[in-house]
Amino acid sequence: MKNLKNALLLKQLYQLKQLGYRYTSASIFKEDETNLALPNSLEKLKEQALKCHLCELSKSRTHVVFGEGSPNAAIMFVGEGPGATEDSMGRPFVGRSGELLTKMIENVLLIPRSEVYIANIVKCRPPNNRVPTPTEAHTCQPFLNRQIELVKPKIIITLGGTAYHYLTGDETGITKVRGTLHQQHGYTLIPTYHPSFLLRNPSAKKEVFEDLKKVKALMEQW
Ligand code: URA
User: Fold this and answer.
1) Half-sphere exposure at residue 63, Cβ-oriented, CA atoms within 13 angstroms
2) What's the pLDDT score for residue 37?
3) Helix (H/G/I), strand (E/B), else coil: 211
4) Does domain 38-219 have CATH number 3.40.470.10?
5) Closest atom of ligand 1 to CA, residue 92
């Protein structure tokens, strides 16, 4: 999903499908297209995301969690979606799993958290921390795609199965794919476990350590 026009069209098609339509004319789209172009700066993109009401998650959110970090980051982390702490603060990965992510960045990659960029597949909290629906993920994805185009990271580390799935289109389970390297769209994608999975399964930390060592090795070649 490349732009908001497509995202809005998709949303309308999902709504019609829920109402029982099986076919429709593509001319249902009536929005002012000039409002749907994606901006050329992270600041403007954030402004647009903060006003977004394209999916159901906008109704229950406290804050849109756009993402944060260095606008020129070589390393980007992508999670699934904000949790309760992130929703209340408007910042990604600031709860318990965020503390662990910060340790992974600072103690293993040996760089300050402020030097990487951190974002999520969906920018608004799914109620009760459920997995975002395909409609929610696809509707929100133009924002993440644009963040990636603007930051131009060399490496994207996806955290958990949801981020890997939506950034690659591959539905293989995270246990199978973690630690593998994928070249796409000018960056290397490396899937690893989500920090919240590590909080529940601390013994998996060693695998994440191995995955991050691969990231470190790539960084040493720059
Ligand atoms: N989990 C996520 O996937 N993202 C966050 O920002 C916080 C927790």
Assistant:
1) 15
2) 82
3) helix
4) yes
5) 6
pLDDT of res. 34: 55
> What distance separates the 2 farthest-apart alpha carbons in the chain?
55
**Domain boundaries of the chain, sorted by first residue:** 38-219
Which tokens hold the place of 64?
């849109």
Partners of 184 in beta bridges: 187
Spatial strand order of the sheet with 187-192 comes to 68-69, 117-120, 75-79, 155-159, 187-192, 182-184
- Note the pLDDT tens digit of each residue in 111-165: 999 999 999 999 999 999 999 999 999 999 999 999 999 999 999 999 999 999 9
- Identify the bridge partners of residue 119 per DSSP, sorted by sequence position: 78
Note the pTM of the prediction, 2 decimals.
0.89
CA gap 12, 18 in Å, rounded? 10
Which atom belonging to ligand 1 lies closest to the Cα atom of 97?
8
92 C-alpha to ligand 1 centroid (Å): 6
Assigned token pair, 22: 């099986």
DSSP-derived secondary structure letter, 166: H
Using a 6 Å CB cutoff, which residues line ligand 1? 79-83, 86, 92-93, 97-98, 120, 196
- Listed in sequence order, the residues at least 6 apart from 17 whose beta carbon sits closer than 8 Å to its beta carbon are none
Residues of the chain with pLDDT under 50: none
